[in-house]
Specification:
Blueprint lengths: L7 H13 L17 H8 L3 H16 L15 H7 L4 E3 L5 H7 L8 H24 L6 H26 L2 E2 L12 E2 L1 H18 L15 H14 L3 H14 L22 E5 L16 H5 L17 E3 L1 H6 L5 H6 E6 L5 E8 L18 E5 H16 L4 H15 L17 H15 L6 H7 L3 H8 L16 H6 L11
C-alpha cells in the first residue's frame, strides 16, 4: 500500500525512475541500487554537478509526469486545474461514469476523491524530492553560485507546492528534512505560510533573472519567486508587500503582455515574455529533456471535432459553463480564443455544441490536437497586473490611477482582434471600491479560464457560494467548501492528520 508520507524510500525509487527517463546524464554510474538508509544514499548519490542537477530535475518532473504510480499524472497534469475548475463556476464534468468528478462539479465531494488525493500525493512527492535535493546539495563541493541556484530552485518548487497545499487543505504537515517523522502531525496554516515565504525569499535572492536559450529556459527564476511572493502576500491580505513585489516585476522590464491574447498560448511562445513560471509539457523546446505531453486538449476539446479531424483525440471530459460563456462580450478576443461553440461536420454544415475550452490548442503547431506540448501557465504577467490592481484597491479603499492602468491594460488587449482594436471594453474609471473589486473578479474570470485560478479567486473574494449557485443549479456550495478534505486514505495511514477539515 502506498504511503505518501512514508516517502523517504519512495524518493529513492522516484529518482531511479527519473534516471530511466534520462534526467541524469550518461556520466552518472551505478545508481540503480536502492539503499533504504537515507543518509548513506545521499552520500553516495551527490558526487558531481550533474547529480545535483538530476536531483533538482526530479522535482520538476513531479509537476507534470505521467509515469509514476499511483497517480495518473503530475500535480499540474490532471488534478490542480480540474479541481479548481469543477468546484467553481468555470467548468462542468462530462466524463460519464466518473462519480468523483461529478461530486466535485456539484460541490458534493467527500474525503474519498481520487482527483483531490492525486494533488495531495504529488504535492508531497515533490516536497520530498525537494528536501532530498536540498539535503544532498548543501554539503557538496561544487561551484557555490551553482549550488545557491540549485537550492534556490528546490526551495522555489517546495514553496510553490506548499502554497497550493495550504490554500487547498489548510493545516497540513510541514516536512522539511529527509528524516522527518514517518507519521507527522499537522502544522498550523500560519506556519506553512511562514515557510513558503522563507523558501520563496531565499529563491528570490539566489535565482537568476533568466537562463541562456536552450540551457535552462523554463526553470524557476527570481521573477517567478517575486511573482509568487506577491500572490502569497495578497492571499494573506498583506497588501503593501504584494504591491511592492508587483512594482518590482513591473519595473524590471523583463515581462510584458503579448499584443494578441492568443499569442500567450502559442507553443513557439512557451516561456516567452508573459510567462513568469510555466509547467513544461512536451520537450520544453528541447531545453529540459524529461517533459512529457499534456492532456489539456484531450480532456477539453469536443468529441465532435472527429467530424472534421478524423485522427484527433478529443474527449470533452470537462466543458465550460454557459455562465462563463455569457460573461464575455461577444467580441472579446478572449472569448473566441478560449471557447469553442461550433465545429464543422463532414458535410460542411455547422454543429453547435456546448462551450468547450480550446485555449491550449495551437492549431498551427498541432493541427491534430490530442496530446499537446503546450505548457501549463502557472503564473503569467497578466496575473501580476491584476494582483497589483487588486492590492492597490484594497490598500486604498478604492482604485488608484495605477490600479486603473493595470486592469485597463488587460482590457485593452482583449479589444485587439489580431489586427485592430474592437469598439468594446472601454477603459474603466470613476468606480468605488466595491465596483472596482467586482470588475477585477470578472476580469480574472475571463482572463484565466482553465489555468487553475478560479476556485482560489472565488475563495479570496468570498464569492464561492454565490457564484457557483448562479452558474450550476445542481451544485450545493457551502461555507466549508473554502477548503478541500484531507484525503481519507491518508488519514487511514496517519491518524495525526486528524481532525478532518470541517464539513467532511
Amino acid at each position: 500500500m502506498f504511503k505518501i508520507l512514508k516517502n523517504r524510500l519512495y524518493t529513492v525509487r522516484f529518482l531511479m525512475g527519473t534516471l530511466l527517463l534520462g534526467i541524469i546524464f550518461s556520466t552518472c554510474k551505478n545508481l540503480l541500487v536502492e539503499d533504504p538508509k537515507d543518509q548513506v544514499f545521499i552520500e553516495n548519490f551527490f558526487k558531481t554537478e550533474n547529480d545535483a542537477i538530476a536531483a533538482i530535475n526530479s522535482i520538476y518532473a513531479v509537476l507534470n509526469s505521467t509515469s509514476f504510480a499511483p497517480t495518473f499524472g503530475g500535480a499540474f497534469h490532471s488534478s490542480y486545474w480540474v479541481m479548481s475548475g469543477l468546484t467553481s463556476d468555470e467548468m462542468e464534468n462530462r466524463l460519464a461514469g466518473s462519480i468523483q468528478l461529478d461530486e466535485l462539479d456539484q460541490l458534493r465531494h467527500k474525503a474519498v476523491n481520487g482527483t483531490v488525493r492525486d494533488f495531495w500525493i504529488n504535492g508531497y512527492k515533490g516536497i520530498s524530492n525537494a528536501n532530498f535535493a536540498i539535503a544532498g546539495i548543501q554539503d557538496m563541493k561544487i561551484d557555490e553560485k551553482l549550488k545557491a541556484r540549485l537550492i534556490g530552485e528546490a526551495r522555489f518548487l517546495r514553496g510553490l507546492l506548499y502554497f497550493d497545499l495550504v490554500r487547498l487543505f489548510g493545516d497540513i504537515p510541514l516536512m522539511l528534512n529527509v528524516q522527518d517523522p514517518v507519521y507527522p502531525k499537522k502544522a498550523l496554516s500560519a506556519a506553512i505560510f511562514d515557510q513558503v515565504i522563507a523558501d520563496l525569499s531565499f529563491s528570490e535572492k539566489n535565482l537568476p533573472a533568466s537562463y541562456p536559450v536552450n540551457n535552462g529556459k523554463g526553470r524557476a527564476t527570481s521573477g517567478a519567486a517575486k511573482g509568487l511572493l506577491a500572490k502569497v502576500y495578497l492571499t494573506q491580505k498583506n497588501y503593501p508587500k504584494a504591491i511592492s513585489y508587483c512594482k518590482e516585476i513591473n519595473a524590471s522590464g523583463q515581462y510584458a503582455l503579448w499584443a494578441d491574447f492568443q499569442d500567450a498560448f502559442r507553443i513557439p511562445n512557451s516561456n516567452g515574455k508573459e510567462a513568469l513560471f510555466t509547467v513544461g509539457f512536451g520537450t520544453g523546446n528541447n531545453s529540459i529533456s524529461f517533459w512529457e505531453v499534456g492532456q489539456f486538449n484531450v480532456r477539453l476539446l469536443p468529441k465532435e471535432l472527429t467530424e472534421s479531424i478524423a485522427s484527433i483525440n478529443a474527449q470533452g471530459w470537462q466543458v465550460a459553463t454557459k455562465s462563463l460563456l455569457n460573461a464575455y462580450d461577444p467580441l472579446d478576443r478572449r472569448r473566441e480564443v478560449t471557447l469553442l461553440t461550433e465545429v464543422p461536420s463532414k458535410s460542411g454544415s455547422t454543429i453547435y455544441i456546448e462551450p468547450h475550452i480550446q485555449k491550449y490548442w495551437d492549431k498551427i503547431t498541432e493541427p491534430q490536437g490530442g496530446n499537446t506540448e503546450n505548457d501549463f501557465p502557472y503564473l503569467r504577467y497578466a496575473d501580476v497586473l491584476l494582483m497589483y490592481a487588486e492590492a492597490l484597491n484594497e490598500q486604498n479603499n478604492g482604485p488608484t490611477t495605477e490600479a486603473y492602468d493595470a486592469i485597463n491594460a488587460i482590457r485593452k488587449r482583449a479589444r485587439f482582434d489580431g489586427k485592430k482594436e474592437r469598439a468594446i471594453l472601454p477603459n474603466l474609471s470613476g468606480l468605488n471600491y466595491t465596483q472596482f473589486k467586482e470588475k477585477l473578479l470578472l476580469e480574472r474570470r475571463l482572463e484565466f479560464v482553465g489555468e487553475g485560478h478560479r476556485w482560489f479567486d472565488l475563495v479570496r473574494f468570498n464569492q464561492l457560494e454565490t457564484a457557483v449557485k448562479v452558474a450550476k443549479v445542481k451544485a450545493n456550495p457551502m461555507a466549508f467548501h473554502k477548503l478541500f478534505p484531507i484525503p481519507q486514505e491518508e488519514i487511514d495511514l496517519n491518524n495525526n492528520l486528524l481532525p478532518q477539515n470541517p464539513g467532511y
